[in-house]
Specification:
By secondary structure, the chain is α/β, with parallel strands linked by helices. It is built from six helices and twelve strands. The chain has an eight-stranded mixed β-sheet, sandwiched between helices. A two-stranded antiparallel sheet has the order 2-3. It has a two-stranded antiparallel sheet with strand order 7-8.
Length: about 230
């Protein structure tokens, strides 16, 4: 089997030294990668990871560092079109927005004094600007393209919410599954994630779900369900 795992967080560039990112550490992706690497049935793992994410150590793993959403889109497209991939575990925390352009409040309102115009060119925006404005636009939904590129690939999507009723978490996760033709969706609530625990609910196509308590349990269950799914084909 050949597996793709995405892990960690994307990072959207403002200039050459500044980025906008999220708090994902990639620890769950690391656990999933480690669990798959231990399976004899798995031949190769493409590990697409954010810059802060730790990569599991295994000869089976080919790491591909990802910057922003467009990097992720390009990397996934290349792997899915060049190889027969049995499963994609899309655990990466992908930014919903990407930087469109950078401006200032005066420029935006048309009140800038031409003689004292702020220079926003160059590789690093000046730190002397008082009213910098970052205009962001919606990022493409990378998960939606996976089954389009590789319909026979088993897809595990992820949905993270914060402080919602359990029933709502399952409902939202199931909608993600239906919308993107996922085979499974791992639903998590941020309030149920801590240093020593990580509750997760692996939702199936019939809306039933498996419940886990730690990263290691989540990883083991995803491996189990993927192997069962591929064996039954």
């Amino acid at each position: 089997m050949k597996i793709v795992i995405t892990a960690g967080g994307t990072s959207e560039r403002i200039d050459d030294v500044r980025t906008i990112t999220n708090s994902s550490t990639g620890s769950l992706g690391y656990a999933i990668g480690t669990a798959f690497a231990a399976e004899d049935a798995v031949e190769k793992i493409y590990y697409l990871h954010g810059r802060r994410a730790v990569v599991p150590e295994s000869e089976k793993i080919t790491p591909l560092e990802i910057g922003g959403v467009l990097d992720l889109q390009e990397g996934l497209t290349r792997v899915l079109t060049e190889e027969k991939i049995d499963a994609v575990i899309h655990a990466m925390a992908v930014s919903d927005y990407m930087v469109h352009k950078v401006t200032t409040l005066d420029k935006l309102m048309g009140t800038e004094d031409p003689e004292h115009a702020q220079d926003l060119t160059g590789n690093k925006i000046s730190s002397d600007i008082d009213d910098l404005i970052i205009h962001m636009k919606r990022s493409p939904k990378v998960i939606s393209m996976i089954k389009q590129l590789s319909p026979e690939t088993t897809l595990v999507g992820f949905k993270l919410l914060s402080g919602v009723p359990h029933e709502e978490l399952i409902d939202v996760g199931f909608k993600l599954l239906q919308k993107n033709n996922c085979d499974f969706v791992m639903a998590n609530d941020l309030r149920e994630i801590g240093r020593t625990f990580h509750k997760g609910y692996l939702i199936h196509k019939d809306k039933s779900y498996d419940s886990m308590e730690t990263n290691e349990e989540i990883a083991a269950m995803i491996v189990r369900r993927i192997l069962e799914e591929r064996k039954g084909e």
